[in-house]
């Protein structure tokens, strides 16, 4: 990827502060049925200068209602915007200042809470509360320094539960969870570099030991532009592994859009009218299932002419996505339609060549022109086609500034227009926090160990391999690992392997490893360490605990018949097995250990440590072989 690409990253990371940013409610997500719900709508208003935000206009035109679900015992009136926010969570502020210090940033003198306009219904207030904590720092990427422009602490949005044509349902349990937002300067010039920088920023956030883990707890937004293009914000990149693709595909999309602009200029096209024409009669006998279904249910077929656009709608912008897909995305978002038809892809989908010719004739179009049409409710069709025309007109200018959503494969789709720049207002209900010398000194005294340094220490102190040490320090179990090794004297390799290999195996099986609390994990490993259960039984115990919420490790051991086995009884069983296979032992000697070990493990697997069984078996075989006459 060439140096024309500019990328900036915004990382949003949930903090594990137990309490929300502006109230004392817990920061936990719940799956049981909510206790209540309320229905609201958002109404657009102009700013003090009389301006209307374009993104707000977009949302108001959709006329959606919003249902908010809550719990009486874990959400409160602050989330519902029926009570003023409480003071800013001090623990979240300290975490934010810690991250700022590790990113070489300058803290502000006073932390003031601001209101940032949010118009998709995800905040009951219509805005998000955010506070700038630091600015102007850097993160090393090899020999380069990537600028860190801004660090804020802010509240997370409500959690989307479902979305229909007329409204969205949100759950209030996530609203107000503290977030740290870190934004880089546009100093990144490739997808690979963007991925490295995001990992570096994530490593510093993890080092604090105060972040939430799991799906949805961290989100990367990317601001991407190329020379001659426009800044486009790609939101919701969940996986670090697709950042490189997102950058690559967005850069390719912008280059293709610039080529379309040049081609339109060469053709002298672009004189597009907003006028739509009813062409239902053209498809009166159509066998197209989509058209037939719409017309038979009272819908209409409406079309617009795009003069000079023939062939351009099939131009590929990203893998599997063409310029026609861009027009379709706009129609879907604004008009709520299932998609569009256009003559660049016809005849197809049951629409015949004769119908295409008749359509172009009715629209007054010729060979250089393209016709776009929809088959749906008449009013929805008008809105959808208006969005198509507006996007087609934007193609004459090149790349429109917009917010796009990331798809799982790294491609993107239209989400909404880029919001206006003046969308921040002071929050008058929350007092400012002075960032004084004593606060900064306290942060400095408690700076955490960085992950690279911690991995080096684990190798030196605990004898772990570097690969295993890196896995442990990058996991949620680093603190538990050190407690078990230092306080309880457990073998470091045994503990680390359990967290990184056994837990990984259980995750692949679908076991909810994250549901195990620190006490349960400690109890299981301690029992194995003391020989009260076999190490081979650890996966079975964790599986049982996952399926039996709230039960103890002792319950699991009893249910799985993992009680301590008397060593004399165990030795008797081993001796009996060797005696039964005496001919094999006499013939093969120690080579008989392997088949005999398989037999004894069938009886005691998960109940006795395999090393103990192997040693007993070896001793019994040795006795028999040494007792043979010369």
Overview of the molecule:
This protein is an alpha+beta fold and 630 residues long. It has 4 domains: 259 residues, no CATH class; 126 residues, GAD-like domain (Gyrase A, domain 2), CATH 3.30.1360.30; 95 residues, no CATH class; 60 residues. The chain has 20 helices and 23 strands. Strands 1, 4, 6, 7, 8, 11, 12, 13, 20, 21 and 22 form an 11-stranded mixed sheet that branches. A 4-stranded mixed sheet has the order 2-3-10-9, with no helix packed on it. The longest helix has 25 residues. The model has no long low-confidence stretch (mean pLDDT 89).
Features:
630 residues, alpha+beta, 4-stranded mixed beta sheet, 20 helices, 23 strands, 39% helix
Please render the helix and strand layout as text.
Layout: E1 6-14, E2 36-40, H1 54-62, E3 65-70, H2 90-102, E4 106-107, E5 110-111, E6 113-117, E7 127-141, E8 144-155, E9 159-163, E10 167-171, E11 178-184, H3 191-207, E12 218-225, E13 232-237, H4 243-267, E14 277-278, H5 289-296, E15 300-306, E16 316-318, E17 321-322, H6 323-335, E18 341-342, H7 353-363, E19 370-376, H8 378-394, E20 402-406, E21 412-417, E22 424-426, E23 433-434, H9 437-445, H10 451-462, H11 466-473, H12 478-486, H13 492-508, H14 518-530, H15 538-547, H16 553-559, H17 567-580, H18 582-588, H19 593-604, H20 610-626
Parallel strand pairs: 3-10, 13-20
Antiparallel strand pairs: 1-11, 1-12, 2-3, 4-7, 5-23, 6-7, 6-22, 7-8, 8-11, 9-10, 12-13, 14-15, 15-19, 16-17, 18-19, 20-21
Helix pairs in contact: 2-9, 3-4, 6-8, 10-11, 11-13, 12-13, 17-20, 19-20
């Amino acid at each position: 990827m060439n140096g024309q690409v500019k990328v900036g990253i915004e990382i949003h990371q949930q903090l594990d502060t137990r309490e929300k940013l502006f109230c004392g409610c817990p920061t936990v997500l719940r799956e049981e049925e909510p206790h209540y719900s309320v229905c609201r709508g958002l109404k657009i208003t102009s700013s003090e200068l009389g301006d209307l935000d374009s993104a707000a206009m977009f949302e108001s035109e959709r006329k959606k209602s919003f249902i908010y679900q809550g719990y009486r015992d874990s959400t409160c009136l602050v989330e519902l915007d029926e009570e003023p926010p409480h003071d800013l969570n001090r623990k979240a502020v300290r975490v934010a200042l810690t991250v700022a210090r590790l990113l070489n940033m300058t803290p502000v003198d006073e932390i003031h809470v601001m209101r940032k306009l949010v118009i998709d219904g995800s905040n009951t207030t219509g805005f998000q509360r955010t506070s700038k904590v630091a600015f102007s720092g850097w993160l090393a990427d090899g020999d380069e320094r990537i600028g860190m422009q801004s660090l804020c602490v802010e509240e997370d949005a409500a959690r989307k539960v479902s979305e229909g044509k007329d409204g969205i349902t949100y759950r209030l349990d996530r609203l107000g969870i503290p977030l740290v937002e870190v934004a880089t300067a546009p100093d990144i010039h490739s997808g690979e570099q963007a991925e490295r920088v995001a990992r570096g920023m994530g490593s510093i956030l993890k080092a604090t030991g105060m972040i939430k883990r799991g799906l949805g707890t961290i989100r990367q937004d990317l601001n991407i532009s190329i020379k001659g293009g426009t800044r486009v914000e790609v939101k919701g990149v969940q996986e670090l592994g697709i950042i490189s693709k997102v950058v690559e595909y967005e850069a390719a999309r912008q280059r293709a859009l610039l080529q379309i602009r040049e081609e339109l200029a060469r053709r002298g096209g672009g004189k597009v009218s907003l006028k739509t024409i009813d062409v239902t009669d053209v498809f009166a006998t159509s066998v197209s299932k989509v058209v037939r279904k719409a017309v038979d249910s009272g819908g209409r077929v409406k079309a617009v002419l795009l003069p000079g656009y023939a062939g351009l709608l099939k131009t590929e912008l990203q893998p599997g996505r063409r310029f026609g897909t861009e027009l379709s995305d706009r129609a879907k978002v604004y008009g709520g339609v299932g998609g569009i038809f256009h003559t660049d892809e016809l005849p197809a989908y049951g629409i015949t060549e004769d119908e295409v010719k008749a359509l172009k004739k009715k629209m007054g179009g010729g060979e250089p022109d393209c016709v776009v049409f929809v088959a749906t409710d008449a009013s929805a069709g008008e809105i959808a086609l208006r969005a198509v025309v507006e996007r087609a007109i934007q193609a004459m200018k090149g790349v429109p500034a917009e917010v796009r959503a990331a798809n799982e494969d790294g491609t993107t789709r239209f989400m909404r227009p880029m919001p206006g720049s003046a969308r921040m207002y002071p929050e008058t209900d929350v007092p400012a926090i002075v960032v004084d010398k004593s606060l900064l000194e306290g942060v400095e005294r408690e700076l955490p160990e960085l992950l690279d340094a911690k991995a080096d220490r684990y190798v030196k102190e605990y004898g772990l391999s570097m690969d295993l040490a890196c896995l442990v320090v990058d996991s949620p179990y680093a603190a538990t690992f050190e407690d078990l090794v230092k306080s309880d004297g457990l073998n470091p390799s045994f503990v680390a392997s359990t967290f990184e290999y056994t837990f990984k195996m259980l995750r692949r099986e679908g076991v909810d490893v994250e549901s195990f609390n620190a006490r349960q994990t400690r109890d299981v490993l301690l029992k194995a360490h003391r020989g009260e259960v076999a190490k081979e039984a650890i996966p079975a115990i964790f599986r049982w605990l996952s399926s039996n919420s709230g039960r103890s490790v002792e319950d699991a051991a009893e249910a799985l018949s993992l009680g301590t086995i008397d060593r004399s009884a165990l030795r008797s069983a081993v001796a009996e097995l060797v005696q039964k296979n005496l001919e094999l032992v006499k013939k093969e000697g120690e080579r008989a250990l392997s088949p005999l070990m398989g037999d004894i493990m069938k009886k005691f697997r998960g109940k006795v440590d395999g090393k103990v069984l192997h040693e007993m078996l070896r001793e019994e075989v040795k006795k028999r072989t040494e007792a043979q006459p010369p």
